[in-house]
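Task: fold both queries, return tokens.
Query 1:
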Amino acid sequence: MAHVIVNPAELHDPVPWGYSHTARVPAGSDLVFVAGQYASSADGSVVSPEFADQVRGALERLGRALAAHDLTVADVVQVRTYVVDLDFAKLGAITEAVAATWGQHPPTNTLLGVAALATPDIAFEIEAVAART
């Protein structure tokens, strides 16, 4: 059995905001932890100063990291996203990219507004936990 996403009816619908409330992972699953990914080129430099490009690029790199374990974004049960100078426009770019990546079944997500990330040009970073059943 694959992981199960549940959004209890007693809680608001989080999907339009790009996350789900809960995920259950079956016993015996292998967990893969992916460190924070940002929109980087092969040499580690940021590929674009545009926030939406950084979000899409980070999600692409997340997919590549998961592929190293024969997993896809469909196997992700939890993400944490970090945003420098979080505002409503940035939230819109994130929810759009999450919808394009996970559709109506996004993983659980804790979104954190932060003062800075590893270098001044990184505006978005995402880390993940994926489960292989």
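Query 1 returned. Query 2:
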Amino acid sequence: MEKQELAEIRNHLGKTQKQFAQLIGISLKSIKSFEQGWRNIPTYIERQVLFILVANQALNKNTKPCWVIKKCPMAIRQNCPAWELKAGQVCWFINGTICKGKVQKDWSEKMKICRKCKVFKLMIPLKESRKQENGG
């Protein structure tokens, strides 16, 4: 996650830096350093921030599950944790999902695929994600 995306999510949620820090359980100094680019945003913070955003978005959406959107065959569905957990709107959050025909080895590899995926974009409609897809 890049600093601009973190700031965009915070602004989308209508939170000050202090409120956002309290929401995700870290210091105000950490939020400031992430948004200024002084420190890299750790994976556990990225996951938590995206989950909070999608929880906020999910209340306002009636989105189909990923396996319907992606038209996954039953053989893939039955081996995918997103289908097993009936969590098709947050498949991007769950490790071990079968994306592009295989399980990705780690979070960063998975998120490279997820950020380009229609399901992710429906649930996480951020300018930064659209910009990355368009090569900007």
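Both queries returned. Flag for query 2: The mean pLDDT is 85.
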